[in-house]
Amino acid sequence: AQTVTQSQPEMSVQEAETVTLSCTYDTSENNYYLFWYKQPPSRQMILVIRQEAYKQQNATENRFSVNFQKAAKSFSLKISDSQLGDTAMYFCAFMTWASGTYKYIFGTGTRLKVLA
Amino acid sequence: EPEVTQTPSHQVTQMGQEVILRCVPISNHLYFYWYRQILGQKVEFLVSFYNNEISEKSEIFDDQFSVERPDGSNFTLKIRSTKLEDSAMYFCASSELGSRGTQYFGPGTRLLVL
What we know:
Oligomer: heterodimer
Distance between the termini of chain A: 41 Å
Number of strands of chain B: 11
Largest sheet of chain A: 6 strands, mixed
Largest interface: A-B, 27 and 26 residues
Number of strands of chain A: 12
Radius of gyration of chain A: 14 Å
Order of helices and strands of chain B: EEEEEEEEEEE
Helix content of chain A: under 10%
Largest sheet of chain B: 7 strands, mixed
Helix content of chain B: under 10%
Order of helices and strands of chain A: EEEEEEEEEEEE
Structural class of chain B: mainly beta
Number of helices of chain B: 0
Mean pLDDT of chain A: 91
Number of helices of chain A: 0
């Protein structure tokens, strides 16, 4: 069974600083996708970044980047130049597919607070 | 930019009552999902739906739950006889064919069962 582990329940960072959120996962699959979702206080889940496991290059989206270590099954999220609007719950998700459809398995989340 | 919408945003119901949560997925998407998030806990998969039938469901999705796509736009989750432990945030998501799995989430419906 696939599992996703986020070992940091809470983190804080000063505005404009860089923070890294960790995520590890367990799977026997070779091809899969990984995602980071942001859930601000409004509670809507917003896609931050995705990574295809077959790609060696780490995904980046503006201030967000990942460090994908396939052998170590690690998928950390780095937020550069943190902004107050980055305050949110961040969920790491592993995507698996079966029966012709996709399913996410989420980690327990990391609550990030950006301090002014 | 197209987005997934959900109604109502909040629902309060008495234990044992039936509730229907509604979702309008993004129009060209073909895969639909429901997830649940109990307060303070992680997001849990309930069910996926494709081609007018359930593709996969979790152990949470028991006989009290059902899903339906009654027309070309809505995707509903019905809970027949709500229990206290059904209180949660329910998220609908959709993805398009060939999107390699990226799911877009609605804003959620907060369900409170009293």
